[in-house]
Amino acid sequence: MKALRRALRNRYDLYLLLLIPLAWYILFQYVPMYGLQIAFRRFNPSLGITASPWVGTLYFRQFFNSYYFESLLVNTLVLSIYQMALGFPIPIVLALLINEVRIKPLQKAVQNITYIPYFLSIVVIVSMLDLFSDPSYGLFNKLGALLGAAPQDYITRAQYFRPLYVFSGVWQNMGFNSVIYIAALTAIDPQLYEAASIDGASRLRKIWHISLPGILPTIVILFIMRIGSLMNVGFEKVLLMQNPVNMTTSDVISTFIYRNGIQKGQFSYSAAVGIFNSLINLILLVGANALSRKVTHSSLW
Amino acid sequence: MVIHKAHTSRIRQSMGDNLFDAVVNVVAVLVMLLVLIPLIFVVAASFSDPDRVLRGEVFLWPKGFTLEPYKMVFENQDIWLSYRNTIFYTVAGTAINIFMTILAAYPLSRRDLEGRRFFTLIILFTMYFNGGLIPTYLLVRDLNMDNTIWAILIPAAISTYNLIVAKTFFENSIPHEIYESAFLDGCSNARMLVAIVLPLSKAIIAVLVLYYGVAHWNSYFSALVYLRDKELFPLQIVLRDILLLGQTEQLGSNDVGMGEKIKMAEAIKYSVIVISSAPVLALYPFVQKYFVQGVMIGAVKG
Fold it and tell me: Which among B73, B134, B179, B271 is the top mutation candidate for probing chain A, defined by the most A β-carbons within 10 Å of its own β-carbon?
């Protein structure tokens, strides 16, 4: 048996298979990481990355001292926390709701219908927001009129950017994000529910004392991962929703990087802003993980 | 056991639980309507007389049924070209994705692979930290891939999340003993992939095709960053131009007035949304089973 294992190990063809994807990881993941050093250099395309002059933390200081630093940071964090405050618990509630529906066809219908929007592209979602915002005939304004609200072009108003972004995200993703909790709920031992019924527990009490604790480990793991990407707002969607009027609330760090880096060619400066963004993410992730290991004894690593 | 059952059913009939059931069902129906109404509205508007859409008469059923907006979209060259491009990017891109993902996931799932933990760590690390937009953009430019189809296909060749899902599937569903007995029969490790692993992995391949395929179909950002030639644009870029930037001048014949043109420009937006989303949504009922399966496999790993 041991000899067999060793022989298997000696087969090099597994490494040959792995070589191609590994080469891809080095070229498209690790070479860009090496390229991040342009954040500390005044990048000159004709000199290349390593020959460009070293400027230390100049670009970082420039960013921290800029007049827009605070508003970019605030916009990013507020949007992200807003999104998390609704986008994280709602799929859990939806999963518990679906789990409680006792009419099988209705249960199936809710589950299958709620994750249809997940398949729509971001361009389509933002276009729908745009069409629904039309002051004269948009769906939002028709519904608003029922409530007695004056018609407005919601998507161009700075104060509506965040709610539109967050609620459309919830609408699109709640079904998909609830699937993982539904899976965790079906794994709970039915005997626990039976025992609770015998003790006379109501349905609500069973949710509170059996269902929720049963999916708590899943909730914790997903929450840590979510914290670790707090600074990553749905960049592509923000970019599509942006217009000159709503920039005061819609300009976030990642769209700033795109505008200055790709569109204006300030590569070094944008790379520095990118590093700042990733570092905060990494610190949040490690922090959340450590906290969770202490408090709940479950963690990512 | 029998006693227990009688017991639970009596408790379930209590007033409180009946009320609870009623509330749950009502909320479930409301959630369903909340998701469906915007979708039905778009479809209804796409088949309606543009005048009546613009007057706000359409809600959940077409008013003044017409196929005129669809005819205009079908006559648009840009949309057709980009539709063809997107089909190409989706098919070729997904094929590359599946090839690369399995090539990495299979060796990494083999418990007898020396250095497995190290290689997995190298790959996992990129999920939490990576070079980001600017260095990747510069790399693609240095490789002379920008403004070619390769910029769409190659930098997105592997999604680490999907790779982990595939690796977990191989680990859990293909027993190690199979490899050992195949080895005794003189089968090479590479042949085991084709002869043993792939035939047992239809479910995970379906999941990967679905995840990667939908991502390619809906992707617009890499095209926005890397492509400049109109002939290479995928559907989502043309959609953005028409739907969000309002570039609809090229639509419609020249023998209609300005007001008519503006009206049609608004009207076709709904049909453009339907036409661009239809293929993915039409496929959905068939792959729905695999889609949930994929989430479950991913959930094992957290």
Answer: B134
